[in-house]
Each structure stands twice: as C-alpha cells, then as structure tokens.
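Why do we bother with a discrete structure alphabet at all? Because it lets us treat a fold like text: something you can write down, compare, and reason about line by line. To make this less abstract, here is a complete entry for Integral membrane protein. Read it the way you would read a sentence in a foreign language you are learning: slowly, and without expecting to understand everything at once.
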Amino acid sequence: MSQWDEGHTLAGWTGFAIATVGATGSGLGLCTGSALGLWGGLGVVLIGVLTTWALHLTGWGKPPGRRPVDEWGWRVRDLGARDGHPGCLGCRLAGRGRPAGVPARVSGDADRDGTGTGEAVTESAL
C-alpha cells in the first residue's frame, strides 16, 4: 500500500457507495427518459458528497499527505480533525484550519502605523 493512501477511509468508502447508487439512478433515469430518476439520482450523489464531508469532519476521513503506517487502516479515526487539516479544502469550507503554508494572522499585521499588539486574532474577532 502506498504512503499516500488517500480515500482509504470510512468517509471515503461510505461516500463512494452512496454516490454509486446515485450515479446508477441518474443513469437509469437518463436511459429511460425519466427526469425524476435523473434528478433524484443527482440528489443522492449530493447526499453522498455531504455524507463524506460530514464523516471527514468528525474524524472518519484523513488529511492529505503521508501518514505513519499505523494510521493507514480505514477504521482508524483521525483525532486531529477537530482543528482542521492544513491544506484540506473540506476543512477550510467548514471554517477549520488554514491553507497549507499560510501562517496565522496576528492583529499587528493589519495595522499600518505599527501600533498592533501582536496578539493572535481569533475567528470571532475577524
């Protein structure tokens, strides 16, 4: 197994299963000319995406990048998910973490006259 085992998680497999059912429903709806089947299948795919995202945010997904061998199992819960994963789009969309390589902003950064306190700015202060 590669050290880059993205998708080998409970969140990934659950989302894949739900999206497969939705894609099958959409395909059948398209082949039979049923708009209800087509849009219903696309709705199920959307539910699969949201389910995967929710499971990822609760720790059943993994951050992108390399991980130690003991974290490769798909039943291993990620305890760091609450703070957000650096470089993870799903975490950023949920308001967690920061993009990779972006340092935390301090209050002095926004002051042009140099009178900032240099204390970290919390999300509620932004």
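What the structure line is telling us, in plain words: Residues 106-113 have pLDDT under 50 and may be disordered. The chain has three helices and no strands.
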